Amino acid sequence: MSFDISSYESKMEKSLSKMKEEYMSIRAGRANPHVLDKIEVDYYGTPTPIQGVANVSVPEARMIQIAPWDASLMKEIEKAIIASDIGLTPANDGKVIRLVFPELTEDRRKELAKEVKKRGEDTKVAIRNIRRDANDDVKKATKANELSEDEGKDAEADIQKLTDRYIKEVDDAIENKTSEVMTV
User: Fold this and answer.
1) pTM for the model
2) Among 102, 104, 100, 83, which residue's Cα sits nearest to residue 91?
3) Over 90: is that where the pLDDT of 110 sits?
4) How far apart are CA 93 and CA 45, in angstroms?
5) d(CA 41, CA 79)
6) Dihedral, CA of residue 148, residue 152, residue 154 and residue 157, to nearest 10
7) In this structure, which long-range contacts are made by residues 156-159, counting pairs with CB atoms below 8 Å and at least 24 apart in sequence?
8) CA triplet 58, 116, 170: central angle to 5 degrees?
9) Cβ atoms within 10 Å of 131's Cβ, excluding its own
């Protein structure tokens, strides 16, 4: 019998995906419609994502344009954007709402780069915790004679290879996002 590490791999994959999702909401001076992903508008009593009630487009490199399908939602969308923590002030011309991304200062770029690194480190910690849990399970299985000593050692080696692969993916993602944030 060999030790199945696929469940631990899927947990590591989820941690990596969550980090990449968080990275999409970090703005790098360019307009990215993903900054609106977590903002919800009260649509007839139901919290609905902005993309569900409006057309979201990027007409210029540093501008997002939101065209609600229902004109009565203009104020609601504006309120939701102001209440969110994306740090942008909506400009409403009666037909569309525009969000203009200011040029990032050097200090703000460094702040964002630190945040990218911190989120990456948090993900690495999560991956290492998954490795620890997997190794604990291997030790328990070996102790209960469900695995031989050699199978236990092989499983631990496989878990370490898996961990190394995901840590490298996290490092690559940190590097890519940091260079994107620091590029003027």
Assistant:
1) 0.70
2) 100
3) no
4) 25
5) 8
6) -170
7) 158/3, 158/5, 159/5, 159/8, 159/131, 159/134, 159/135
8) 105
9) 22
